[in-house]
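fyi for ur records
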Amino acid sequence: MTSATPFPLVVAAPSGAGKTSLARALLQARRDLAFSVSATTRERRPHEKDGVDYHFVGDAEFDAMIEAGEFVEWAVVHGERYGTTRSAIQEALDDGRVVVLDIDVQGAAAIRASFDDAVLVFVLPPSGGALAHRLAGRGSEAGAERRRRLINARAELPSAPRFDYVVVNDDFDAGVAALGAIVDAELLRVDRRPGLERALSSIDREIAAILEES
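which gave:
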């Protein structure tokens, strides 16, 4: 039987829920996955690397990418623009790997509109207090920015029922394992096995031959 058909795995969440850390840990643990690096106009944080965490671009370059039709989705999030290029997704799929997209809630629907086999995972914090604590602990946003992110989180939470799966990021290792289990289960779906009919026919012929000899 041929290998399963790869798909886009969208991991979305309110800011501070831990989706990026979960996605990165999953990618480090598996060789059959690839990461779709988004483009953004926001400033690079000290620990981030251009081309690894994001493609950090200016407004003019982002505008040019929109004009050229490079984005399968883009959105304004917390006052900055983020976009996913179609080429980044397609290259990974053509390489036979599940492509992980760490994007905002707004972009998830756009990915599904372009890739109907995409799998959408919504990551939740264990509580509102935990989310506020994590945002404060990052130290990368001032108080006003943290407040804006919490307000945005309230607006994003109602989107969760429209996703395929929900993972609560309470225990980090369990969260990574849950994401891995989702990938494994999706790869076993009948509609992702293009060689299934041939495999069934082959097994049937072998059984028929055995019966004729017995």
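The longest helix spans residues 196-213. thats all i got for now
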